[in-house]
């Protein structure tokens, strides 16, 4: 390993693997630290004297350029409607934690605790984050009986805890994501997720038709490629700082951001994808593109998601969702009852 000034563990507690490219990271951070310093000054001015965050064009622009880590908890709560939800039921989280809990839900959540970020020092059995994670997930499972507990929520709640350092803030942000921002990703039938994968396929078909056809020709379903991207909101997929920058925008602009990220990953790695000649190579290629240098350089990557995909309106996504949801309902009606 090359000599580096950087620790073998990042600032969020994730262990850096043996093949971690310290040289590229050092180069990236030498540039990104200046960006962070500049953004911190601007946010300090915006939030000075206890000002509350309003949804304005200035705030939208600031959010796209990154929310400083120390401000993420309060800014995410303000821009996502989670703050309004909490203010309507300020004692809800603690009341749920007072119990009682259903054994089935407890067992489900406990099964996934050791699987959540095993490479993070805060989520080891000795650390206390597994307890915090259990509290957030069990509270949400009892609060939203339609969703209960669904795999994938552990990664989202886990990263929310790392970013906010607060159980209650993480609970409300999780609630905002599942109930306000994402369309039925975590219900038992995962209808919203299945529809959004179809929507992405259609968007790729219109914006990168050669890539779309190539993926079809090699027989790799889009669901195999992108289910984890959507379910985990890129946690456990992209580098951590890139994920948090995506979440900055997700909380402000909604699930359209997920499509922008997907299309950017696909279009910027077009040459690598098109060079694949079989199913296995293509699957490995899609695993590699989320770990390469362009994904690590989060500031440039976030600038690219608003340029590379081109125009992507909410109305287009709404129409495509309606179309594929209708097709799914019709398909379900044709299926014989079980």
Explain what this protein looks like in three dimensions.
The chain has about 350 residues and is mainly alpha-helical. Helices cover about 65% and strands about 0% of the residues. The chain has 19 helices and no strands. Helix 6 crosses helix 7, helix 10 crosses helix 11 and helix 10 packs across helix 14. The longest helix is centred in the first third of the chain and has 25 residues. The chain is globular. It starts with about 20 loop residues before the first helix and ends with a helix. The model has no long low-confidence stretch (mean pLDDT about 90). Keywords: GTPase activation. InterPro entries: Rab-GAP-TBC_dom, Rab-GAP_TBC_sf, Rab_GAP_TBC_domain. May act as a GTPase-activating protein for Rab family protein(s). This is Growth hormone-regulated TBC protein 1.
Q: What is the structure about, briefly put?
A:
Helix content is 64%, strand content 0%.
Show the helix and strand layout.
Layout: H1 22-46, H2 57-64, H3 72-79, H4 82-88, H5 92-97, H6 103-112, H7 129-143, H8 153-164, H9 167-181, H10 191-207, H11 209-217, H12 222-231, H13 240-253, H14 256-268, H15 270-274, H16 279-289, H17 293-296, H18 298-304, H19 314-334
Number of strand elements: 0
Shape: globular
The arrangement of helices and strands along the chain is HHHHHHHHHHHHHHHHHHH
Low-confidence stretches: none
Organism: Parnassius mnemosyne (clouded apollo)
Keywords: GTPase activation
Protein name: Growth hormone-regulated TBC protein 1
Function: May act as a GTPase-activating protein for Rab family protein(s).
């Amino acid at each position: 390993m090359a000599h580096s000034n950087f620790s073998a563990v990042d600032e969020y507690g994730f262990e850096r693997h043996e093949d971690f490219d310290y040289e590229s990271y050092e180069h990236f951070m030498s540039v990104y630290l200046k960006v962070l310093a500049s953004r911190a000054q601007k946010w300090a001015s915006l939030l000075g004297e206890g000002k509350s965050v309003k949804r304005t064009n200035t705030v939208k622009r600031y959010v796209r350029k990154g929310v400083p880590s120390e401000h993420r908890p309060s800014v995410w709560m303000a821009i996502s409607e989670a703050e309004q939800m909490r203010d309507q039921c300020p004692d809800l989280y603690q009341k749920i934690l007072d119990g009682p809990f259903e054994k089935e839900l407890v067992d489900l959540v406990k099964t996934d605790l050791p699987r959540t970020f095993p490479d993070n020092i805060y989520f080891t059995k000795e650390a206390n984050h597994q307890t915090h994670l259990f509290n957030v997930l069990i509270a949400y499972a009892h609060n939203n009986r339609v969703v209960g507990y669904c795999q994938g929520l552990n990664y989202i709640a886990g990263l929310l805890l790392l970013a906010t350092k607060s159980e209650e803030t993480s609970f409300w942000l999780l609630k905002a994501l599942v109930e306000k921002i994402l369309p039925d990703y975590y219900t038992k039938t995962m209808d919203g997720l299945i529809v959004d994968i179809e929507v992405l396929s259609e968007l790729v078909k219109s914006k990168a038709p050669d890539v779309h056809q190539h993926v079809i020709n090699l027989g790799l379903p889009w669901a195999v490629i992108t289910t984890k991207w959507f379910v985990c909101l890129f946690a456990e997929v992209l580098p951590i700082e890139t994920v948090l920058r995506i979440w900055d925008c997700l909380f402000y602009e909604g699930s359209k951001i997920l499509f922008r990220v997907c299309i950017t990953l696909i279009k910027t790695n077009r040459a690598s994808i098109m060079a694949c000649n079989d199913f296995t190579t293509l699957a490995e290629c899609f695993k590699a593109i989320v770990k390469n240098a362009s994904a690590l350089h989060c500031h440039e990557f976030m600038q690219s998601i608003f340029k590379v995909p081109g125009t992507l309106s909410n109305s287009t996504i709404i129409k495509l969702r309606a179309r594929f949801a209708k097709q799914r309902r019709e398909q379900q009606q044709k299926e014989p009852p079980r």
